[in-house]
Amino acid sequence: MMTNSMKKAAGVLTAVIFAFSALAVSPYMTAFAAVDPSTLTSLDRYPGVKTFDFSCQPQRENVSSGEMVDPEYSIRLSKLSPDEYFGARVSQINDTETGQSIDGIVLGVDGVKGKCGCIYRRMFQYRDKWIDVKTTYMDWSVYFAKSSFMAGGFAQHRWRSTWWVEMKHEFFISGTNTPVEVKGFLEYEDVDNSQGLYLDMSEIEDMWVNSGGTTIGYKNIPGGVQYAQNSRATYVVDRNMLCVQSMTNDDIPLPEEAGYSAVNAARTCFAFTFSGSSLHSCMVDDDIQGFNVMNVSGSKNIPSAVPGGGTDLVAKRVSDEDETEVTSNSLRNTEGWTYKVNAMVPPETEPGNFYDGFSFEDRIDSDLTVGEVRIIRGRDEDVTDLFDIYSENNVVVATALDTQNRDFYGYEYFMYIDVTLDRGKDEMLREEKLDDNFICTFLNTAHVFYADGNGQRNISTNETYTDVQYEIEADIIISKRIRAADNYPEHGIPSFLFRLQGESLSGKQITLNGCVTISPGETEGTLRFRNVPEGEYRCIEYESLRFEPESITEVSGGRVSGNEVIFTIDSTDVRRASFMNRKKSWSDYSDSNVVINRIGIK
Q1: How far is CA 58 from CA 62, 303, 357, 495, in A?
Q2: What is the rounded CA–CA span in Å between residue 313 and residue 330?
Q3: Which of 3, 371, 427, 560 could form a disulfide with 418 if both were Cys (CB 3.0 to 4.6 A apart)?
Q4: What is d(CA 60, CA 68) in angstroms, rounded to the nearest whole number?
Q5: pLDDT digits (tens, 9 = 90+) for 352-371
Q6: For residue 217, what are the β-bridge partners?
C-alpha cells in the first residue's frame, strides 16, 4: 500500500469520468514545488471558472444547467495503455510497487523530440465515430538519460528520471489520418505540488473547481519565458500555458485508507472541457528519480446538460429516391419520402444523472399519410421496441420506455418516419394548395423532449422544406400565317387542321386535334391546345389542297423536325410555333372541297 507521502508525490488524473491515482514513487527523494506555491492564486479565482461540489454525488434535480457539462463533451475512454509507440526504441521497466512490466520509450537515449510518442486506437466514440488519439512527445528534459522513461500520454502517464514532458494529443477518425475536432471533458484529482500540469488555455472551453474550497492554485506562464524548477532544471514553454498545482503539502488519504475525507479529497480536484483537433499539455515533475504513475481508480459524477438550442445534436433531415439527408428536397407527388430526426443522449454513468424522460415528437402535415415509424440507435441497431410509438391524427410521438437503464445512455438515436402524399391534383387545386407551377411545399420542424429534475426541455430541430411537384400543365399556341394575296374570298375561308400527339410523363397517351381559320382580309389565325400535361408531343399539320408548307418559325419550348414541331412540356411556360403556308393552286378547287365545273359541248 502506498504511504501518504508517496501518494502526494505522484498525483492523479481523471479523464472523462475516470480518476487517475498514483501507484508508486521513490520514498527517498525530496519533492520540490514545480512552481513556487507562494506565486500561485487559488484556482477558484481563475476568470470564468465554474464551481461544483466534487465531494458529493450530484443528483440532476439539484444541479443547475450552468453546472452541467455540455453533452458533446461527454466522451468515454475505452482503454488506458497505448496500442503502439512510434519514433523511438520501445523498452520495458518494472514497477517495483506492483511488479508490473511496462512498455515505454527511453527519452534520453534515442527519442527525437517531436517525432516520437504513442497511439491509442479506438480510444473513444465521438458522434458515432471511433477516435484514435496520437500523443507526440514534443519536448522534454531528463535527469538521467539512460534511465529516463515515458509511457502513455492522453489517458495514462508513467515516467521516471524525467523533469518534464511536453505533449501534443491529436484526434483522428479511427484507422485514418483524417483529423477531427473533438469536444472532451477531462478531470484531475489529487493534484499535488511536486508536479505541475500545464495547459494551453486557448484550447480550453471551461474550467471547473470544487465549490467547497480548493487547495489548488494556478499561474499564467507566458510562452518563451524560462522557469526554474529547482537548482538543476528549467522549463521553457513555446506557448502561453496555465500551470495548475496544489498549494499545500498536506497528505490526503486515499479512499481505502483511514482518515479519508471526501470533502478534503475534493479540494484537490479540478476539471476542464476542451475543443479542437489537438490538445497540448505538459507534465512537470520535481521527484525525478521516483517511478510515477497516473492510473484509473474512480469516477466523478458531474452530469451532462440536455442539449441546448443551436446545436446539431438535435437535427432533422429528409431523404427520398434521389436525395439523402438534406434539409430541402424536391420530388414528384408519386414518390414518398422519409423524415429523420436525430438526438444525442449523452453517456451518463450514475443513476442520479439519468433523465426522467426522453421522447421524439413530429407533427406531420395533415395532407400526408404516415407510414412506418422506427427508431435506430447508432449506425444500424433497430431499437424500436425500446420506445412506445404513438401515431394518431398525424402526430407521431416516440417515448423511451426506460430511461433509468444505464444501457440507454451514450448513443445517438434516430427516428425515421415514412410519408406519402396520396391526394390528387384536382383536389389540391380546388383547395388552392398548389402554386402556379403545380408545387406544394411542406414545412416541418420536429421536437425532442428531455425531462429531468428541473422539468422538461423542449428542443426544436431545424426546419425542413419539401417541394412536391404535381404533373405540370402548359398551353401550346399554334399560329397559322398566309400571305394577304393568298386569302382569296372566291375560294372560301381558309381552314387548316392540326394534330398534337404524344405521351404524358405519367404514361398517358394523348391525341388532340384542332382547326385554325383565317377570316377574310386577315393573314393569321391561332389555335390553343389548353392544359397539355407534362411530356413530349409532336405537332403536325394535315395536308390541305390549295396550300403547301413553307416554313415553321418562332418556336419556343420545342424544336422543328421536318414539317412538324416536337414540344417538351416541363414547365408552365406557354409553348409556341408559327406555321407559314403559301397557296399552290388557283384553279378548280375551293380550300376544302372539289368544285364541279360544267362545260357545254357544241
Answers
A1: 7, 7, 18, 92
A2: 25
A3: 371
A4: 9
A5: 788 999 999 999 999 999 99
A6: 42, 245
